[in-house]
Write a structure and sequence with these properties.
The chain has one domain: 4-Layer Sandwich (CNF1/YfiH-like putative cysteine hydrolases). 23% of the residues lie in helices and 26% in strands. The chain has seven helices and 15 strands. The strands form three sheets. It has a six-stranded mixed β-sheet with strand order 1-2-3-15-7-4. The protein has a six-stranded mixed β-sheet with strand order 5-6-9-8-10-14. A hairpin with a 4-residue loop joins strand 8 and strand 9. The longest helix is centred in the first third of the chain and has 15 residues. The chain is globular and about 55 Å long.
């Protein structure tokens, strides 16, 4: 399902997307950067509290690994919503839009998703030359970010039956403890969502974020999807985790980046 490159900047790759000749992509780990302390080392989130020069260098390294210019690696101001933007050219940082999904049909632009427990989801319709990426936490997934991203790709000519979707590393069900009343908002949306919760004790359940995302991908009309796996919470050495940090009493955390681009 995946491999870890043994040279240059470590990156996890999807077997599915790797078979598409005009697609470049990567699910990057926390290794290979220059940030230190709680941000060690490949922190790519400008809003994390890390030094900007460190983040800029880390993103430069990611860009090099993707064979694009640093200016062409873009990421939105993610707000756990369902808004999607269509990219025609890279934006400047002071014009970064609030959105949790991005799509484009322009070559040489990498759509970057920042995560630290939520799932990055990458999409590609190779035939039409359209790609997409979204940040899927529980709020965004419940709010329709998957469907919104696919619809934005369709507006560029993509067809759901041709789109390949890959769910990147995220917090696993075994690590995602929630209060029982957390389930109510899911049941209010769709009783079928109950299957993604496991009772643990009188007051807690375990939530399967990746499973719900996979269901939403299928509901959007996509025939094939893949899940990279890896649990952010337990992957201490390789992935950032908001929940792991906060449960340990920390206040800051790094963000991993996952990205997809159309080759020039």
């Amino acid at each position: 399902m995946r491999k870890l490159d043994s040279f240059d900047l470590p990156v996890m790759r999807s077997k599915t997307l790797s078979m598409l000749p005009n697609i470049e992509h990567g699910f990057f780990t926390r290794k290979g950067g220059i940030s230190t302390g709680i941000f060690a080392s490949l922190n790519c989130g400008y809003d994390s509290g890390d030094k900007e020069e460190n983040i800029a260098e880390n993103r430069r390294r990611v860009s090099k690994r993707l064979s694009i210019s640093p200016h062409s690696l873009i990421s939105a101001h993610q707000v756990h919503g369902s808004d999607v933007v269509t990219i025609e050219k890279p934006w400047e940082r002071n014009n970064t839009p609030k959105a949790d999904g991005m799509v484009t049909n322009r070559k040489g632009i990498a759509l970057g998703i920042l995560t630290a427990d939520c799932a990055p989801v990458l999409f590609a319709d190779q035939t039409q030359g359209v790609i997409g990426a979204c940040h899927a936490g529980w709020r965004g997934t419940l709010g329709g970010i998957i469907c919104s991203t696919v619809l934005a790709m369709e507006a560029l000519g993509a067809k759901p039956g041709r789109i390949k979707a890959v769910i990147g590393p995220c917090i696993a069900q075994k690590s995602y403890q929630v209060e029982v009343d957390f389930l109510d908002q899911f049941l209010d949306s769709d009783p079928e969502f109950a299957q993604y919760f496991i009772n643990e004790d009188k007051g807690h359940m375990r939530f399967d974020l990746s499973g719900l995302i996979e269901l939403m991908i299928k509901r959007s009309g996509i025939i094939f999807s893949e899940s990279i796996g890896h649990d952010n919470f337990t992957a201490t050495e390789t992935l950032f985790s908001y929940r792991r940090t906060t449960l340990a009493g920390g206040s800051g955390y790094g963000r991993s980046i996952s990205a997809i681009a159309l080759r020039d």
